[in-house]
Design a protein that fits this description.
Two copies of one chain form a homodimer. With about 400 residues, chain A is an alpha+beta fold. Chain A has twelve helices and 17 strands. Chain A is globular and about 75 Å long.
């Protein structure tokens, strides 16, 4: 293969950054004018690289390599979170361009709405055949409530066919992404070879008590939904370290007490709770313990708690042969400056992994920041990332 | 004294209920059209009872008895919480009218904005000389932000003098009020003689952590402000029963995690916490323990917690001679069907108690409900309440 033109790669990244520029970051929500402009920009770049681009009915942009296989599929997403960073998603798409520009047998993809303005991974799920029409009918923008169907029509996507994966065409899917954590930076490393993408299990814990005046109701009489929630969360904090794995995480993102006034005993409490791990067995242990703690809470407390699943993804282990190829490439280009690590965040690769071998490579995130306009990575790390990706892709294609 | 006309008393209550009627309750926020209509209605009733009514510059309506003393001051407030009950406040004002109608030497008062649409107890605080002009300049409606000054002008109150208490005129202040709890109902009792009004200490607990992506940040790296809050609240729950009194209460009304999203580790947590007791020594023990627990949290946790006082009221014990007169009256009219009890809620009487002997009498609340349009009390209990109030007032005036 020809060498990767890292200068051109960085120039493309900076050019894309100007579409929807916000401070040093980017505001390019799915299907907005800026997002659609970036998709057209991408199609132009694909043509320059000799790929044959199509934008499909869900907004996926796929640039097809015209030559003989075996092919790799390389990409990520191109829209951003609100007022977010310039690399999250864009990096993996522009890296795909760089591989194509170097003459490699790659198809390049930008999957629509990985960031979940409307759904979550709807582009990659559509491509693997796991986005039913009924779900498209139902989805709405999570910030302003516009129907997905209306957004697709206004973006000019209505009526276009949706492109499905073609069995046998791709030897695997590769995604370069920023780490969105501080593991690499803290260890002084420059590349991460991803072992797998964590499962994320999201729950809503709803406690029902009795709303009462905080002055007129004795402690013995109360059914304080907020207090029952606090007690259960403290128990989770005490118990989860006993059953978790070394890289498990669990997070309470929101606690809403209703009505939420200083002098009123909460009649209802709603907690958003999630847990993540890359190992299904660890996930199962944590979920078992969670259910047991809810059961115990319901025996002990006067406010019943209902555990409602919000979304339950499964872990997506990365393909061992692809991991090996990327690890060998990393050791060749950055000896001693890389490590294997799980991905704590969800990525399109977890859906592609359901239909083909898939793997991911991480570059460091400065201070671990992402989903914020200050998100950044050193340019030499970006350049090294795309070089390791290309070298790993070449090694894997040669197997 | 002449007997209390309880039929007329109940008729007055039902007539007042129609001003701002909402379902079976009342919506009469301070200084609204309905509130001002109720104040004018009250002045008409005062004139019928032979009182000389004035509405002052803060909206207090005071009906002055023209005859010789010693006088009692009797009353409560007339505005309501939003979409609230027909008795909270109105009961004590209309009871004052009933005593005046029976020929007793009482001045009757309706204190403005006990419910705190703008401030909280601003009428009774104005009357005792504890509402400075600067505070009136500053106050705004807590629901829609209108300035208190603008509301006073639109209600036609601007420029009127504010009436102050007249040292020596009143032998004491009496307030009949619904219990707003279930103590009387649960014990099968019909009258409560209030021993004192609890102090309410309100705090804001602010925890500062580090906002991070829930997938990219390991448990060891995290500074989760929400988790630090949960741990402290669980400790309070464990420790307060060791230092509280028999009727102490403590309440967490709100927990706000910032930014409050499922996949983001909260960088900030804000908790509204309050405690109540009628005994200053118990309050002091609870506050000492609270401060110690915050200190311990700050030694143990990575997210510092700041304890900010929001409002700190002091307990208001009821006058012993007045309590005795009310207790004797209750035993005479409802033998065995009454008890002494603290008030867990704040009332205008706690401010009047700063300048004269003050006492309160409770009638039962059906199911303990208040600050809701379903608030109610059996009519025979309302009638008994005003009779005990009158008998107690007569006994106290005779001492």
């Amino acid at each position: 293969m020809a060498a990767i033109d890292t200068t051109r790669f960085l120039r493309d990244l900076h050019e894309l950054r100007r579409i929807g520029e916000y401070r040093t970051g980017v505001h390019r929500p799915t299907y907005t004018k800026e997002d659609m402009e970036s998709r057209r920009w991408l199609m132009d770049r694909m043509r320059e690289c000799g790929l044959d681009p199509v934008m499909d009915g869900i907004g996926n942009v796929i640039g097809r390599h015209p030559g003989p296989g075996p092919h790799l599929l390389v990409g990520s997403h191109i829209e951003t979170q609100n007022h977010a960073g310039w690399l999250d998603g864009a990096l993996g798409v522009v890296a795909g361009l760089a591989l194509a520009r170097a003459g490699m047998a790659v198809d390049v993809a930008a999957w629509a709405d990985e960031e979940g303005h409307y759904g979550g991974f709807i582009g990659s799920r559509s491509f693997i055949g796991q986005l039913p029409e009924e779900e498209i009918d139902r989805l709405e923008n999570r910030y302003h409530g516009r129907k997905l169907r209306d957004a697709l029509r206004e973006a000019g996507l209505e009526g276009r066919p949706r492109i499905r994966w073609e069995p046998g065409r791709h030897k695997g899917f590769l995604e370069l992404h920023i780490e969105q954590g501080t593991q690499l930076e803290a260890a002084g490393l420059r590349v991460g070879v991803v072992t797998g993408i964590v499962a994320i299990r999201q729950y809503r814990l709803v406690f029902t008590g009795q709303q009462d005046h905080a002055g007129g109701t004795t402690m013995a009489e109360r059914r304080d939904a907020g207090l029952s929630a606090v007690r259960l969360l403290a128990e989770i904090d005490r118990h989860f370290p006993l059953v978790c794995g070394p890289r498990s995480t669990w997070t309470t993102g929101r606690i809403a007490l209703d009505p939420g006034a200083a002098s009123i005993i909460p009649g209802r409490a709603e907690v958003l709770f999630q847990l993540r791990d890359v190992d299904e067995a660890v996930i199962a242990r944590m979920e078992d313990r969670l259910r047991a703690l809810v059961q115990e809470s319901n025996r002990r407390e006067k406010c019943p708690c209902v555990l409602e699943p919000v979304s339950l993804s499964t872990p997506a282990p990365c393909d061992p042969a692809m991991q090996r190829a990327l690890a060998d490439a990393a050791e060749a280009l950055a000896p001693g400056a890389w490590q294997s690590m799980p991905s704590g965040a969800g990525h399109d690769a977890q859906y592609l992994a359901r239909v083909m071998p898939a793997a991911m490579l991480f570059t460091p995130s400065i201070a671990g920041i992402s989903h914020h306009w200050t998100e950044d990575t050193r340019e030499e790390d970006l350049a090294l990332g795309v070089e390791v990706l290309a070298e790993g892709a070449a090694r894997y294609l040669a197997t």
